[in-house]
Automatic annotation (TrEMBL):
Keyword annotations from UniProtKB, A to Z: Metal-binding, NADP, Oxidoreductase, Zinc
InterPro entries in the record: ADH-like_N (IPR013154), ADH_Zn_typ-1 (IPR014182), ER (IPR020843), GroES-like_sf (IPR011032), NAD(P)-bd_dom_sf (IPR036291), Zinc-ADH_QOR/CCCR (IPR051603)
This protein's record includes keyword Metal-binding: yes
Family: Belongs to the zinc-containing alcohol dehydrogenase family. Quinone oxidoreductase subfamily.
Domain of life from the UniProt record: Bacteria
Annotated TM spans: none
Record's protein name: Zinc-type alcohol dehydrogenase-like protein
Natural source organism: Paraburkholderia acidicola
Keyword Ribonucleoprotein: no
Domain Enoyl reductase (ER): 12-335
Length: 338
């Protein structure tokens, strides 16, 4: 089967950073689905895993953790899906990625594709929807039934992939006042169209900008961009007994002592935790994606595709990596068809 893989971890401009390769056709066992991949999207985790290091892979390593496609075969223990079902999912970081014609994935982290979306628009959603949902509702404890209506959230990185769905979840389900950050007119427009009530620039003085809006503090902060840079501002603006959740790894110690006087909570969100550790509640991601699909089909949530880069091949995937590394993407970058 066709796939995009790597042998060495190289800068994205190196011609061998990502290669078109041929790999054996995988076979489904256990609770695995074998999915014929129709579309993928690319996330920062892809280029972070690919980032330069000394390791060399004897067989091509396939990246990619967002896909939509059709179930081509099922393992003997599968109960949730059947051959022919259209699905969408983000997969597991501990297994080969979805940048391939056929892909194995545990049914417990898969959802049925929204009927109202084509494969490309569906592929934009899984990883970011799971991340934003878990960060907002599981980690920070916001009610998805709107019981915290009127409270406020600052979403740092509002026009990125996670921010794009996070704004919608916070506004449509959480009924929160949403302040999103964006640094360019195009990204500010995007975040506003998704439901943000206010926009501030994360390259500026965020506490001062919030004060100009008449907002002294917020109940929650979601850091979807650069924890090292933005944590001090998040700690300054979060309310006493509020909460901060970040999805971005830090390169220096996080100054959580800044939260002590406020008794404010600090959370990490990593959407691969359940699949990585095969947690007893792993099936919650199947339920989550099922609910996301229902909300999309009901018109409550919208897809977050920013640009379709064309067919799934090494050249186009390299282009997507480059755009994400340079911070030029708005919404999600998708590719469809081999």
């Amino acid at each position: 089967m066709k796939a995009i893989g790597l042998h060495r971890y190289l800068p994205i401009d190196h011609p061998e950073a990502l290669l078109d390769v041929e790999l054996p056709h995988p076979q489904a066992s256990g609770r695995d689905l074998l999915v014929k991949v129709e579309a993928i999207s690319v996330n920062p985790v892809d280029y972070k895993v690919r980032s330069p290091k000394d390791a060399v892979e004897k067989t091509p390593r396939v990246l990619g953790w967002d896909a939509a496609g059709t179930v081509a075969a099922v393992g003997p223990d599968v109960t949730l899906f059947k051959v022919g079902d259209p699905v969408f999912y983000a997969g597991s970081i501990t297994r080969p990625g979805a940048n391939s014609e056929y892909h194995l994935v545990d049914e417990r982290i898969v959802g049925r594709k929204p009927a109202s979306l084509d494969f490309a628009h569906a592929a934009a959603l899984p990883l970011t929807a799971i991340t934003a949902w878990e960060a907002l509702f599981d980690r920070l404890g916001v009610s998805p039934q709107g019981e915290d209506e009127g409270r406020s959230v600052l979403i740092i990185g509002g026009a990125g992939g996670v921010g794009s769905i996070g704004i919608q979840l916070a506004k449509q389900l959480g009924k929160l006042k949403v302040i999103a950050t964006a640094s360019r007119p195009a990204s500010a427009k995007w975040a506003t169209e998704l439901g943000a009530d206010h926009i501030v620039d994360h390259f500026g003085d965020m506490p001062a900008q919030l004060k100009q809006l008449g907002i002294e503090q917020v109940d929650y902060v979601l850091i979807f961009n650069d924890t090292d840079t933005h944590f001090p501002a998040a700690a300054a603006v979060v309310k006493p007994q509020g909460g901060i959740c970040t999805i971005v790894e830090n390169n220096k110690p996080v100054e959580i002592e800044l939260l002590k006087a406020k008794s404010a909570a600090f959370h990490w969100e990593f959407m691969f935790t359940r699949s990585m550790f095969a947690t007893p509640d792993m099936i919650e991601q199947h339920k989550l994606l099922t609910e996301v699909a229902r909300l999309v089909d009901a018109g409550t949530l919208r897809t977050t595709v920013g640009e379709n880069l064309g067919p799934i091949n090494a050249d186009n995937v390299r282009r997507a990596h480059r755009m994400l590394e340079e911070g030029r993407a708005i919404g999600k970058l998708v590719l469809s068809g081999f």
